[in-house]
Write a structure and sequence with these properties.
The protein is of the alpha+beta class. Helix content is about 55%, strand content about 15%. It has one domain.
Length: about 200
């Protein structure tokens, strides 16, 4: 768990640092992500723009974060990305149309505006990770994420504060890398089709 602990400590440090800067930004606003529902954002451009503003803020900081990440070095393959604006819109619309008509807290939908992933060289089972997180980083949320062939462990940073956007860390076992990549590619196809329809003025 040494590599995992090193990565988690790095993300916690940058999460606190970047969000402290965000709180001083002119676009900062204390929205309660647990009380606001996806359906509210779907019809409220002001709330949507707030999400975009935060996303753009961390996007401006991404090179700094990524360079610091590269300087540390990890045994497993570590990658990171900021969620694209169109991908945010797609996720909100998907939740509105396919998940209880969007009557779901925004906190459960947009929890990965900044995401990290580590492909572990040695497989670790979910219960071991969950117990480790509970004992070592009790403020973090750890879940097993499975859908079709996708199988990973997701860890969320900022879960204890409803007025902060969460960041996500995905833990992939090396044995699941190929099937997880395939699952991501299928999701990307659905998103690309949605994006094409919207660019043509479709629904």
């Amino acid at each position: 768990m040494i590599e995992l602990e090193k990565l988690i400590n790095f993300i916690i440090e940058k999460y606190d640092e970047i969000n402290l800067e965000w709180e001083k930004n002119e676009n900062y606003n204390q929205l309660n992500m647990k009380k606001i529902q996806v359906a509210d954002v779907y019809i409220d451009k002001e709330k949507l723009n707030y999400i975009f503003n935060y996303r753009n803020f961390i996007n401006d900081k991404f090179s700094y974060i990524f360079n610091k990440l590269q300087q540390i070095g990890f045994l497993g393959n570590v990658t990171s990305r900021v969620k694209a604006l169109n991908s945010i819109q797609y996720k909100i619309e998907n939740y509105k149309l396919n998940h209880e008509n969007g009557k779901i807290p925004l906190k459960k939908c947009l929890n990965d505006l900044l995401g990290f992933r580590i492909v572990l060289l040695n497989d670790i089972d979910y219960n071991s990770v969950k117990n480790y997180i509970k004992d070592t980083f009790p403020s973090l949320k750890c879940i097993k994420s499975t859908k079709k062939e996708y199988d990973a462990v997701h860890i969320y940073f900022g879960n204890e504060n409803n007025k902060k956007f969460q960041w996500e860390l995905q833990l992939w076992n090396k044995s699941k890398e190929k099937t997880n990549l395939k699952s991501h590619a299928e999701y990307k196809q659905d998103y690309t089709k949605w994006e094409s329809r919207n660019n043509k003025g479709g629904v």
